[in-house]
Amino acid sequence: MSQRIYVGVDIGGTTIKLGICSEEGKLLHTYEGPTGAENGPDAVLDNIATYVRKIIADNNLNWEALAGVGIGMAGFMDIPAGIMRHSPNLPGWKNVPVKATLEQKLSVPVKMNNDANVAALGEVWGGAGKGIDNVVVYTLGTGVGGGIIIRGHIYEGFSGMAGELGHVQVVPDMEAIQCGCGQYGCVETVSSATGIIRMAKDAVERGDRTSLSDAGEITAKDVFDAARNGDEVAVRIVKRAAFYLGKAMAATAVIVNPQRFILGGGVARAGDILFDAVREVFTKYTPEPARAYVDIVPAELGNDAGVVGAAGLHLRAL
After folding, report:
1. Which ranges of the chain does DSSP label H, i.e. alpha helix?
2. Contact of 124 with 149, CB cutoff 8 Å
3. What is the DSSP string of 81-104?
4. How many CB atoms lie within 10 A of CB 40?
5. Is 34 helix (H, G, I), strand (E, B) or coil?
6. Does the domain made of 131-298 have the CATH classification 3.40.50.2000?
7. Distance CA 192, CA 293 (A)
8. Alpha-carbon distance 17 to 26, whole Å?
């Protein structure tokens, strides 16, 4: 294969996903393997190197065609140095030199970035943001992640902490609960799947009249389904999640002024019941010049956004 290829690696708590991408951002092949996080950082990095070699060999590709490997993972990192300072999903990860270690194991250039950042880059390179240079992506899952793309490039800030959109504090102090980051009132506490489930469980424990009382182990999907069926408690929870997300997006709009917001992750699969409410709040709280011609759309790449964006980390530098 004469064209250069790039491997993107999306590291999760239990699974490592890999994808081979062309220079145009087309996803050519994928592979998944266990993370092995219980065995420590060295074992995980060994697994990544093994999986990269396997995906190349299994698809009969020349190693020499591999121009680089990109890594996306959750946590607080020194992006320029390629060091994971702390990852909440991976026990024992403190100041792990991911970039240097993998470059030694694979003898190819390695870049790394926050998982939400690479998902954002993936959507811009080959998904819902294709052809648009200024985009903000929210990933609504267990937590709320974010990625800011300005002029086609990830905006990282001076230390790589830019785009932590789930930790914008929007909930008033009297209603705020502590977030996993240690602060109070973050949008993540109400607009993530975890936050939605917590609000539903609180309602059930209070004795509110709701069909969610019969749901057993409540999921975010249960809440959205109940809201579609007219359950007043579920409707209230969905509106609250959408309200604080919309307000956070309004604040982001006047700072970043993106042309498009993309919402991805499991919560975003709720569809119109969430999107319509978010759009209404965003319109109400965003000054007209900052919201004019701005749209809010669902992500397109799903679980592939992370590997596509991780592979795309190298194309930024070309």
Report:
1. 41-58, 98-106, 115-126, 188-191, 193-206, 220-228, 232-256, 272-285, 288-291, 305-312
2. yes
3. TTEEEE-TTSTT-EEE-HHHHHHH
4. 15
5. strand
6. no
7. 27
8. 16
pTM of the model: 0.85
* Identity of residue 23: E
Residue ranges covered by each domain of the chain: 5-122+304-317, 131-298
Alpha-carbon torsion angle 139, 117, 87, 81, nearest 10:
-170
Assess whether pLDDT exceeds 80 at residue 2.
no
Same topology, domains 5-122+304-317 and 131-298? Answer is: yes
Look at residue 173 and give its three-state secondary structure: coil
Pairing status of strand 144-150 against strand 153-154: antiparallel
**pLDDT for position 316:** 63
Amino acid at site 64: E
The pairing of beta strand 135-140 with beta strand 260-264:
parallel
| 80 burial type by CB count under 10 A (0-12 exposed, 13-18 middle, 19+ buried) | exposed
Protein fold of 5-122+304-317: Nucleotidyltransferase; domain 5 (3.30.420)
CB neighbours (10 Å) of residue 158?
7
pLDDT digit string (tens) for 106-161? 999 999 998 889 999 999 988 999 889 899 999 998 889 899 999 888 898 887 77
Exposed (0-12), middle (13-18) or buried (19+): which is 292, by Cβ within 10 Å?
exposed
Lookup result for tokens 């604040």: 251
Predicted pLDDT of residue 264: 92
The alpha carbons of the chain give a radius of gyration, in whole angstroms, of 20
Q: List, in sequence order, the alpha helices (H) in 2-84.
A: 41-58
| CA-closest candidate to residue 193, choices 261, 270, 282, 300 | 270
Find where tokens 């266990």 sit: 34
Give CA 156 to chain center in angstroms.
14
Rounded Cα distance between 56 and 14, Å, is 22
Q: Look-up: residue for tokens 């239990």?
A: 14
